[in-house]
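Async update (no meeting this week)

Hi team, since we skipped the sync, here's where things stand on the single-chain job. The sequence we agreed to prioritize is pasted below, unchanged from the tracker. I ran it this morning and attached the output directly underneath so nobody has to dig for it. Comments welcome in thread, and please keep replies under the output.
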Amino acid sequence: MMQLTPTESILHRLHPWVKMTWLVGATTAAVVYSSALAAVVLVAALLLVLTLAGTPPWRLPGRRLCLMLAVALLVINTVIHRRGHGGLDPSWAEGLRHGLLAAARIIAVILASRLFVATTDPTDLGQGLIALGLPYRWAYALITALRLEPLFSQQTRIVYWAQLTRGVRYDSGPVLRRWLMLRRLLLPLIVSSLRAATDMSGAMENRCFGLYKRRTSARPIRFEIGDALAMAFGVTFLIILGVVV
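Output:
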């Protein structure tokens, strides 16, 4: 899920500070707000924004797992609250409210994180963090992790299918055997990761990375009026959602 959506939208052009504010605000609201209706409205708003960003809900990676998790939280919280009230009929409605709140909370956090990653270029994110005072060496470490994640995912798929063609089975046998078979998948990935880290560190040393206290950018980003309006709109929406709903 940690991949930038290869589309162009208004949200992609916003400053990383705006989307960082939205992420922190939406996550905080999902945890703090105790109204199930507010949590559901927050999820609906995030789904709408994701659609505007070129990542509709039916294309989200891991959507089936998220849906199964939401349904499980809904059922478990409803049943537990029902048993805790000793057979009173109103407990079904209250339990359903608690279950809906728990499911909407986790879905809102997932959607907010997905929105941030799908619309924020790692390089722009690094510049935004540097502008906030983060040392550029640390920012580069974060950028590197985000950029290498798709590469390692692709290598995982290559190793997995290559081993399947050689007769290695991950979907059969006892659970313990399946767990032990993961070593055949992890060992090539660890070797390739160490090799990539060695090559990258050598290239950084050849380019004198870390020699200067400050580092320039070939494509600097600026916080403009439209970014301020978008940030204010997001914060205002979350405040109104908490007060009214």
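Quick observations from my side:
Residues 10-120+224-244 form one domain.
Residues 175 and 181 are 10 Å apart (CA to CA).
Reply here if anything looks off.
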